[in-house]
Amino acid sequence: MPQEKLVSLFFQQSCWMIKPLATAIGYSVPSTRRFLVEAGYYSSFTHNGKWYTLRTIPHFDRNGIWFFDLIGFSRAGSLTNTLIRLVTQSQGGMTAEQLGEKLRCRCHSVLVQLYRQKKLHRQKQGRSYLYLAVDPSTQAMQLQAREGEIVSVPLPAEVAVLILAEFIRQPDLNFEQLAKAIVSQSHIRLNAVQVEKLFDLHGLKKTMLTVDPRP
What we know:
Blueprint: H1 2-12, E1 16-17, H2 18-25, H3 29-39, E2 41-43, E3 51-54, E4 65-68, E5 71-74, H4 79-89, E6 94-95, H5 96-103, H6 108-116, E7 121-125, E8 128-132, H7 136-152, H8 157-169, H9 175-186, H10 192-201
């Protein structure tokens, strides 16, 4: 039976390309594709989807990703579906660099297409973009989580110096205004809470005005 032979070949070798697989079982490529459908399969999200494995073979990680050497497979299927799933399910969105590292492939161009097709949202973050879910409520939660991550990370020394220098130049600015001034000068992600923590760390908090919500 060709179906049994196909399954046995995958137990010998976890991944196959379609033409070598068809040759190995002695059937045409269309017939081999039909056998794969009947058996249940995944096609790779790397290598333009040219590699196949049976659905019973992968041991997916918590992100639904499995690699056989450099060949990547995903529960979501294609690279586009995988990117949408990873970004949407992420706590605070993901950059192209983070996604590329996780998927072991370059995905900048695909992410741009998904953004243009309105399947993902993105926000400028320094020199790169942060990709977020399209759903407004999910997106809001991701941004809120991202702000929490930013606040919890100590400011780099060079950013702290910029803030303190700006305070010396304009001592009447409140925390929010200081943050906005640094962002406009350096295009870095910064908020009033981070500035307040910096001043608290250096014992300068009492010399600052409280955060004023007015522009």
